[in-house]
Batch of 2 targets.
Target 1
Amino acid sequence: MSWSGFKKNLNRATTQVMMKAGQVEKTNDRDFETELRRYRTMETAAMKLQKEARGYLDSLRAMTASQMRIAETIDAFYGDAGTRDGVSRSYKKAVDDLDAETVKALDGPYRTCVLEPIERFCAYFPDINECIKKRQHKLTDYDGTRAKVKKLVEKPDKDVTKLPTAEKEAETAKQAYEVMNDQMVTELPQLIDLRVPYLDPSFEALVKIQLRFCAEAYSRMAQVQQYLDKDTRDQYAEGQLDARVEEVLHEIRNLSIAGTV
Amino acid sequence: MSWKGFQKGVTRAPQTFKQKFNIGELTKDPIYVDAERRFEELEQETKRLKDNSERYTGAINSMLNHQIEFSKACAELYKPISGRMSDPDSFVQEGNPEGIRACEEYESIVRDLQETLKPELEMIEARVIKPADELLEIIKLVQKTANKRDHKQLDYDRRRATLKKLQEKKDKTLKDEKALYKAENDVEQATQDFNYFNDLLKTELPQLFRFERDFISPLFQSFYYMQLNVFYTLHEKMQSIDIGYFDLALDIEGAFAKKRGDVQEQAEKLSIVRPKAAAGKPKPGISKYVSKYAKNPTSSSASTANPEDGIDNPPPPYSPVTHSSLSSPSGHLAPPGAATGSTPLSTAAAGKAKPPPPKPKPRRLSGAPPPETVTALYDYEAQAEGDLSFLTGDVIEIIQRSENSNEWWTGKLNGKQGKFPGNYVQLKS
């Protein structure tokens, strides 16, 4: 921290202590406070939106990734068992394509239309928070200098030059504060008003991306069906496949290496 | 470990050591070794199957949850924000009531979807994950048997070594003879034990592998149909989204750009938003995936996607986010240094996208005489009919190009002619 920065901080800290002690009058700006609360509400909501947007992409990826690993495993199982009948292959291909074509192809639009706009919007917040902090500093300065003037008026100092200097200081601080404050009071509502047009298109884009993903995922997966026997579907529906699995498990359990030794 | 087990462990220790360092005579049964290897694979695969099925169901659930939360967050933003919550008069009509309605409709659809998918996902749980889990249990038992066999093998080798040593000893005393007799007996016993387990495993492991095939096939088929059902349900439910709020006729990016307009510029004009910090450089080129979608929009909205696409040489679409603000007269290329000062979030988030292709310096005017060649900076795979594929480092002969590297150029490589994105290559100086 620079020396002047340090001095400023020290001055402000003193003013704040004096304020707490009731020695310095605090300026209240209701307009600003209202806008600040509105801004905070928006900030929280937007940050949540950002989190969810990222989470959605992550879980979509996780889903296709685990699907791919399942396909790999099944293919390996089949390979060992020596039944390459094309099912596991085509399944693997469908799943791979789903990842390579659909998910990755939607990645771009998702980024440009959903993730990046939201992240960009959220990236404004640190700057704004910086401005809010700065305004607060200027306000403290202003309050501090004003209190000084008040004190000098009530209890004139021997040095007559002190009052005009303090008055001048107070005037400068007031101006600095007002510039910042006006900026905040006019621009915060503007930004808040922009939030809907800014973020709303992303919502629509997200819904559309989901639509497309679901449609493509289904059509890709459905293609595998042609490699399966016609009656497999009925067997599945009637629970025969599960019965078969149970049966095999039972047989395996009967092997003496499986614990009966 | 039991006392007995511990004692056995101690007596076996020297032989274990020998086996580790391959000292002395060791029994190796190639058939068993192979079976063991397959067995290990089986174990790993079963485990993978189980883990990933679990992850899969988890991911679907969390995807739906994020969808719900996303729309909730949207609704939160669409609501009119008042600075004085307790004062009803302070609510100005500045929110987005239609948007909120759309959010609610959307949320209810997703919730419904989640409800419908629940039994489906539970089925995966019950019919895939559980059997796989059971198989894993069995595998553990088999593993135990295999361990036992290994121990017996150790014993067998150990006894044999002792016997051999005694046999080789010259001038046997009476004591030695006794020991020899005992050793012979031990070897006999150990051989029997070892052979029993070895043969058992050798006959039954292949049976296990056969069962494995019988097991995985119906399991996989079940899994497939469950998955198909999941996707079908997703597709059906999402397809039925009929929220008037969304303009579903337009494609993703077109609608986005249309709806968005110049809001971003407006926002960044505000002095509290310091655009120099937030505004980055133009997007790192164009993700090739984006270009694919824009070039062949699957929906019927081809005409609306990029109004300026009428030309033969459609430029790769800009991501509307940043480019509209930076659109410069065509032909003018911003020097890369001008924009790189800041670190935009976009590059951090760009994850898988290609790195930002540096802008090639326009060395010639567009009327430059051919043949002109460029070097590929990245691999490019044809995304549509008439595209030119190439690998990094390929030298492409230019047939036609513009000054703007963000457009599609035409070139020739290995006798093939096709279009490719200009920012994937560098001009030869």
Target 2
Amino acid sequence: MPKIPYQQAHSLSRIALTRRHRADEGFRSVGTASLLVVIVVVLFGAGFMLVARSSPPVMQPIEFPHFRHAGSVLEGGHEINCLYCHTYARRSPVAGIPPLAKCMGCHRYIATDKEPIKRLTEYWKNGRPMPWRKVHDLPDFVYFSHERHIQRFVFQEGQPVQQVCGYCHGDVKTMKVAERRRPLTMGWCLRCHEQFQDTGSQTPAPAQDWLIEPADVGLAGPAAHRGVPRNAPSDCWECHK
Amino acid sequence: MGIERMIKQWFEFRRSGQVGDEYHRHEYRWGMTIDLDKCIGCNACVTACYAENNLPVVGKERFARGLAMHWIRLERYWYTGEAGEKKTRFSERGAQYLPMLCQQCEHAPCEPVCPVTATYHTPDGLNAQVYNRCIGSRYCSNNCPYKVRYFNFYSYYDTWQTPLEQQLNPDLSVRDKGVMEKCTFCVQRIRAAKNRAKNENRKVRDGEVMTACQQACPTRAIVFGNLEDPDSQVARSWKVHKMAFGHNEKKEGKKPVRGYRVLEELNTEPSIQYLERVRDTDV
């Protein structure tokens, strides 16, 4: 009868330990044991998905330094508003990547001697767009509107732009290369939507299994919302398309 | 969940009378009126639906086998003479048309039978279908008295070959094999209008949301809107024709108005009112 390496499972997955460790002191059959191995592996996978918050790094054509553009002046940044480049975020479901012309608006004059800027200029001269790669990618069956979130938090409530973007994108202004810091899963979205729900609309039962603790969103507790109604949708069809 | 939910909801839905109280508090209740007197059977609504909702064209052969994926279909009815009359093959006055789409029933028979809650009722009175949750059991379609649910027996995403994929609507997914789908009352347009309204701190105005079929209808036979708003066009038309949820023609007798709902006696409480066609010979 094979032994289950409990300690190993323990170190691998925190979820697997408590229930399994106590309940299964001895195994009656190989079948049970192998079933448990499967369960442990599955739970480990699930646990990993829940715990994993940031993405593997996405290789970009140029290492775009967000900290240099959006970071604070004291740390060598320029404090450019997020919405200056990602201008579609306030009026469209997708935030968008600025056209190369917007980059060149500054970089025709600024830092033209740097290697990445030379490559940028090359793309510009060849009349080709930068092949940026997507960092925050949602499944195709999910509808998410940047416009609605920006309109609500920035324009109706008057919160600072970087703070609002940071709820889902993390502290981009300190990033050397943009990476996904938040899980962006349904359970994560809904945890926040639950906090912004005063109309009594409840999270649908099928979604409740997926709820996870929100990352440090900093929205907990009913903060003052300038009278903007807290009616974040929680219905399946508000996002699933 | 599972069988308990199924049984509980089943009895709930089979009761006649007032429709789910919890939904009455909501600010929207989408409904429709289709005037069959205005319908000329041009099929523009069907075409519009294909364009709006990424519906695949299945081809002649599969169409003949009943595998078409049209969310709205135009049914033709031919008057071929009453009993005792001389039978005619085709009615002299032409066909009668009836656009048949998902009736967005308030007591939808498809909902309680779904084993995974992929189909459910939204607070604003839509009968929703969540594609990524659907496992393709097809119970819902088998339980639908209107036969307006369509199952993807095949993958069609490669039918939009370059550059045709550019015509796809990005606001809703392209369904793959093994998933049930149906009319959504153009929920992507409703969603967009709601977002717009919320940005401007107001409610969705009457006429702001148009379904694709309504927009394409050359005779404006289709009226769509919010039934909770008493001033909306659709609510007025329901009122004029003495139509309301809980109405049952079988029990209450036919009223001298044109409005009716298809298979009302099954207690499905459809959200679509049809207005009977009036022939000059009837008057």
